[in-house]
Amino acid sequence: MYRIRMFFIGFLFLLGGTGFAQDTANYNVQVKQFLTTGPLGVHMPAFYNKPNMEGKTFQMADLLKFSQKKVTNPKAGKIFLRSSNETLKWETTDAQTAFKAANSAPYAIYWQTFYLQANRFVKLKLKALSTHPFEVFVEGKKKTYNYSTDNKLVTKETSLKLEKGRYLVVVKSLVKQGTAAVQPVKVSLSYAKVYTTKAITASLSDEQILDISHILLGQKLKATDISDDGSLILLQFSEAYPPKGKTINRVEIRNPKTNQILFTSRHSDISQVKWIPGTHNISYVTKDGVTPALMAYNLKTHKETLLMKTPKQFSEYSWSPKGDFIIYSVQEKYEKNKTGVYELRGMPDRWPWYRMRTQLFLFRPADHSTKQLTYGYLTNNLQDISQDESHILFSQSFPYYAKRPFTRQILMQMNLESGQVDTIWNAGFGGSAVYSPNGKQLLVTGSAAMFNGAGIHLKKAKIPNDFDIQAYIYTLATKKVEPITKDYNPSINNAWWNPVDHQIYFLSQDKSYVDIWKYNPANHKFTKLPMKVDVVTQISFARNAPVMSYSGSSISYPATGWLYNLKENKQAEVANPEKAFFAHIKFGKTANWNFKNKQGYTIQGRIYYPPNYNPDKKYPLLVYYYGGTVPTSRDFGGRYPKNLFAAMGYIVYDLQPSGAIGYGQNFSALHVNGWGKENASDIIEGTRKFIKAHPQVNPNAVGCLGASYGGYMTMWLQTQTNIFTTAIAHAGISDISSYWGQGYWGYLYSSVASANSFPWNNKKLYVDHSPLFNADKIHTPMLLIQGTADTNVPTGESIQLYTALKLLGRPVKFVEIKGQNHHIVDYNKRILWQKTIFAWLAKYLKNQPQWWNEMYPKKDL
């Protein structure tokens, strides 16, 4: 009878059906191949027939319920399980081939797996049919099961809601010894025809497209730090864990030559790990018993020693170049009165942290002595320590409302022996400063407007973009200022004056790249160093060797770490923590695409193609931009991962419109008092030219997306053109004046973006260039999305445009993310936020409204 039943099941599948009732309203997919492994012999545990404390005895089905090993990334030929008696490998089998006979064990476990690729959002039913007990898992979650052991034919069904992506399906079976010709569990899938054909495919390939999990999870390399002699590397990692996204930070110290791990902070609670100068020892902040402390650790002896008990509100610390002392900072918090009624002492007093002040202290480990270096009602920030350890640079900043940029900075030098303080500058346009190796000069970075405009390389009528950072050499004895980057187009993110080779190094925004440049003070020559990544995020220099380390990511690859020998000009990879995590990910190709705008500027852009791009097909287009002060760099991941949008089936066009830094002062100055002039024109012109140049783009399915200033651009663009099918604005500015007055940094950002323009002297800018005052021109379906706790761009910016468009009867939706600020950082809310954007785009650019309707069903309120 058993053999007749198995023959009947196989006969049904061979007829070309699913083994279940035919359904003309649905598409039906029969899973014909599996990756299979087994049998794994299993035994009942000792005393299985004795009841436990709840009176239950161990049953045959409990062998199935027990997890022998988690199934992850099965692949043909790959070993799944190895024991003393047997080795199980994954093999390709079809749905009609009987399992291998079990060994001498009384019971056997078999696994069948396949990958289910959802090519869009789809609701489907999965059916499983067998005569023996089984469990079905989708992405590790049990979806259905049969624990009956009476050998009767059983069909089990489960409903699935799948978003676009790959899903691992595992069918686990239990068979009793002596069962002849054990047939695999039969699996079929069905879904409504409203989802169109090929909504899903079943395969055995472990290749997959990029998903949100690969953006949020995995080991992220955050920074590198090279030892003084260049022989050891300290690596900082972070890793988030579902279901709530808890992040664990850790450090490792490795020998780059052998890759040997000499130290790891895994399972320990330490922070601010730093090299102790001139040694292979490290320092870090942790708890000495129950008291926070700064500790030292010897890598050779593995001995931990106490440096100092850290005071309450201990903030951060820096070692002196020779390791003779530490400069550390302590915060002091001054509370507003507790009545709940208080006077604001200026605009910054709205910031919750504004009344927190920081003072500097000096600690000498040799004798455990401490002295306070600064005091007062202003925060004192350490800028640098001289190489001979005789002086420090520190600064104070305070509001100054009489003149742009509405703050002033005092940079000072302190003689650490005498305590004498000398003021280097007291100016509106401040910056950062580090000592030259001999301590006689300073390397200063800041706006072109610093030093009475010494760095400006523009026509007199133009105002420089203060976010376009320049560099200067300042001689302390003569107070002479030498601007060294007037003809250097990249904008400086950070700067070092290396005491080993006496060269200056810049980490610079160079168009959409972030590169490292070397400047020779003797011959004034700039040299761009060859980088192994597109966007460098940080650099570390050895104090006593011509070696540096750096980390960064590229357009289609996550962060890696590198060691760079500056003398030999050789590089070696020292960290690639996500190599295995991304091994199965298939990326689409990328390409540059530029055009010359009406003003004659070359507007750079790049294209992200879908992974399985077919030039003979038509694709929806997503146009992404920021449009503000900085380019959208070629880094991987981030809050708007272009590779992820491409993986969802869109051609993505990312362009850098007028006003961005990294292209020279003339280009970046276009941002000042621009607000939708040249940059909006560039986006419209670029989109039209892009569509014309790419016949693969469906011109009736073109979306645009931007956030913050990019959100403003999204809103503003819809008042200027009807080229877009839909638009998404995250935290966009709808009224320039209300953002200027209410955003935490509104008036400060506007001191650059709207330099010398105010609501009372430039109504044309504040009114005519605000989307809210042009809302009647908007007809494009628009999604507004924003956190309810946004202090940068107040949530009211989205609310008031939503109100206007609703009253005008225009197609608009508004999604709020409770408790989130300008960026959506909560793990689960970030995922829902990302899916909200995907669902909206699918609705308008793919004519697939089901995902949106599932997330936000219509309700009568």
Polypeptide structure, described:
Mean pLDDT is 95; it is low at 1-21. The protein is mainly β and 861 residues long. A hairpin with a 5-residue loop joins strand 45 and strand 46 (602-603). Helix 9 crosses helix 10 (746-753). Among the domains are: 2-206, Jelly Rolls (Sandwich); 587-855, Rossmann fold (3-Layer(aba) Sandwich), CATH 3.40.50. It starts with a helix and ends in a 6-residue tail after the last helix. The strands form 13 sheets. The protein has an eight-stranded mixed β-sheet with strand order 44-47-49-48-50-51-52-53, with helices on both faces. Strands 2, 5, 6, 8, 9, 11 and 13 form a seven-stranded antiparallel β-sheet that branches. The protein has 14 helices and 53 strands. Its EC number is 3.4.19.1. It comes from hydrothermal vent metagenome. Residues 643-847 form the Peptidase S9 prolyl oligopeptidase catalytic domain. GO terms for molecular function: omega peptidase activity; serine-type endopeptidase activity. This is ApeH acylamino-acid-releasing enzyme.
